Amino acid sequence: MSKLEELLKQQAQHQFQQNLRIHRHFLNLQEKFSDNSHPKTFDWNWSATNYNRIALVNMLVSLRGGIDCKYLEIGCESNALFDSVFSNKKVGVDPATGGTNRETSDEFFSSNYEKFDVIFIDGLHKYEQVRRDAINALKSLNESGWIAFHDLLPRNWKEHHVPRLQHAWTGDCWKLAFELAKSDDVDFQILNIDHGVGVLRAKKKDAGVIDMSSDLSEEGYGYFVDNLDVLPRVDWFEGVDWILSYHR
Ligand SMILES: C[S@@+](CC[C@H](N)C(=O)[O-])C[C@H]1O[C@@H](n2cnc3c(N)ncnc32)[C@H](O)[C@@H]1O
To answer: Helix or strand or coil: residue 145?
Structure first.
């Protein structure tokens, strides 16, 4: 075996051991939090819709200036979305990987004075954090801009659970969706694509988000299941019609 082959083999073994460790870690956590399990699952097949967050963000970008659109992404990871956005004016915030700014969203917003036309929120998938990101994003949004949110529709209790129990994770961002649905200052829809992508349009300057945290903070996946009908969910085509209605 050549030196290169030996090195590749070692790397593959190392990766395998690493994946095994993560898998065992998640299995232990699933066992630990099994009391939080819930029988309801949703059979949303995201890959069958043929539209995803990248299509949506690029549509919003094209409606808000195209290559001159000022785009902000919170949480970039491997840049799967960030690198696919065709704007020339992009800022990506992530404390770990990807984007342009190595910092948390809280750190970024605390010193940011720029305004953006399209903002995509996909950082830490915990209600309190995504709520803060939404409020800060509203303050950093140009008039007639759009904010989108990833991962608002968990398909089962494990996808929703905080702390995280497996690779596929929406967290409990869905709690913010209930607040946005009830906030008079914003128009809000959830597109039934790609784990649920929320889209928000501010109806006025200084728009805010109503605070239901005293009711929602301690709620579990059962609340989401029991109240799903309250959320304004639309398919891709209805969502596009709604977005375009602002640009006719
Ligand atoms: C689901 S990934 C983002 C995926 C990306 N937006 C996409 O669509 O391809 C979530 C990312 O959020 C980042 N993250 C975690 N905590 C954060 C925080 N407080 N502020 C900003 N990003 C955060 C993580 O490092 C991770 O890379």
So the answer is: strand
Residue 16 and residue 20: Cα distance in Å, rounded? 6
CA of 5 to the centre of ligand 1 (A): 34
Give the distance (Å) from ligand 1 centre to CA of residue 214: 26
d(CA 12, CA 24): 18
Domain residues of the chain, as ranges? 1-34, 45-244
> Under a CB-based contact definition with an 8 Å cutoff, are residues 61 and 70 in contact?
no
In this prediction, residues 111-116 reach a mean pLDDT of 97
pTM higher than 0.90: yes
Q: Kindly report the CATH number that applies to the domain delimited by 45-244.
A: 3.40.50.150
163-221 pLDDT per residue, tens: 999 999 999 999 999 999 999 999 999 999 999 999 999 999 999 999 999 999 999 99
78 — phi, psi (to 5°)?
Answer: -90, 10
Query: Which of 94, 125, 197 gets mutated to test ligand 1 (max ligand atoms within 8 A of its CB)?
Result: 94
